[in-house]
Amino acid sequence: MSTFRTAVVRTPGGPEAIEIIEVPVVEPGPGQVRVEIAAAPVDPVDLATAGGMFHELGLIHQSEHTGLGWEFAGTVAAAGPGVDLPLGSRVAGFVGGYDRDYGAYAEQLVLPASDVALVPEDLDLVTASTVPLNGLTAAQLVDLLGDGEGRRLLVTGAAGMVGGYVLVLAQERGWRVTGSARAEDEAFVRGLGAEFTTAATPGWDAVADCAARQEHAVALVRDGGLFVGVWPGIRPASERGITVDAVDAQPDGARLAGLLDAAARGHLPARVHAVVPLDDVATAHREFAKGGVRGRYVIQP
Ligand SMILES: NC(=O)c1ccc[n+]([C@@H]2O[C@H](COP(=O)([O-])OP(=O)(O)OC[C@H]3O[C@@H](n4cnc5c(N)ncnc54)[C@H](OP(=O)(O)O)[C@@H]3O)[C@@H](O)[C@H]2O)c1
Question: How high is the mean pLDDT of the chain?
Answer without folding.
Answer: 97
